[in-house]
């Protein structure tokens, strides 16, 4: 069974840059997995930040960017702000029908 | 407007079943699968299953196999998720979501299900 791995937690200073990653328990992530990234704050549904590796969803600030770094998908936040403190989830397309697999999420602290 | 609108909060007793609905609008319902994801208090998102709204194909997470049933009504552009034999650990917010390689994710607002005697 495929396991999608994310850092359980991460911290960044206000104004700093942080890169969260999304990997596979076996194998490398490529654009063929159409990685997408979602931000969730308590009590709210997830919000789409990035899809198809690096396409920002409408209204998402350009301080959020997606990429492939080595064998992982990555979400980079440049110039972190206090309200970026959230949980971040990656979701991968597994290439067979509508099969999408969730990562366990990263809790980002801005302090 | 492209959106998913879910049914309201539910309170159920242990052992009962709950059925949550998710009405799609603004897009061709039958062109996508509808996923169901839940989040227990303070916990991570947990994928439960999906149904392709067009061909009716279904896949469930092994964790929920046997207790969850997803269906859809194409005439109403609505998907449903029924969870049976509820226990306190099923207290959670349940989301429907559509994922697309070219459009990203679209989420419902969530439905709180509380299981309590």
Q: Can you characterise this structure?
A:
The complex is a heterodimer of chains A (111) and B (117). Chain A has strands at 4-6, 9-12, 17-24, 36-40, 47-51, 55-56, 64-69, 72-78, 87-93, 100-102, 106-110. Chain A has 111 residues and is mostly beta strands. In chain A, strand 4 and strand 5 form a beta hairpin. The mean pLDDT of chain A is 95. With 117 residues, chain B is mainly beta. Chain B has no helices and eleven strands. In chain B, strands 2, 4, 5, 6, 9, 10 and 11 form a seven-stranded mixed sheet that branches. Chain B has a four-stranded antiparallel sheet with strand order 1-3-8-7, with no helix packed on it. In chain B, strand 9 and strand 10 (104-107) form a beta hairpin. Chain B starts with a strand and ends with a strand. The mean pLDDT of chain B is 96. The interface between A and B is medium-sized, with 25 and 26 residues.
Helix/sheet category of chain B: mainly beta
Query: What's the pLDDT, averaged over the residues of chain A?
Result: 95
Task: Tell me the β content of chain B.
Answer: over 45%
Structural class of chain A: mainly beta
Mass-distribution shape of chain A: globular
Helix content of chain A: under 10%
How many E strands of chain A?
11
| SSE topology string of chain A | EEEEEEEEEEE
Which whole number gives the mean pLDDT of chain B? 96
Low-confidence stretches of chain B: none
Give the strand content of chain A: over 45%
List how many beta strands of chain B DSSP finds.
11
Sheet bearing the most strands of chain B, described? Answer: 7 strands, mixed
Q: Terminal Cα separation of chain A, in Å?
A: 36 Å
Assembly annotation: heterodimer
What is the molecular shape of chain B?
globular
Radius of gyration of chain B: 14 Å
Model regions low in confidence, pLDDT < 50 over at least 5 residues of chain A: none
Q: Which pair of chains forms the biggest interface, and how many residues does each contribute?
A: A-B, 25 and 26 residues
Please give the share of residues in helix of chain B: under 10%
Strand-and-helix sequence of chain B, N→C?
EEEEEEEEEEE
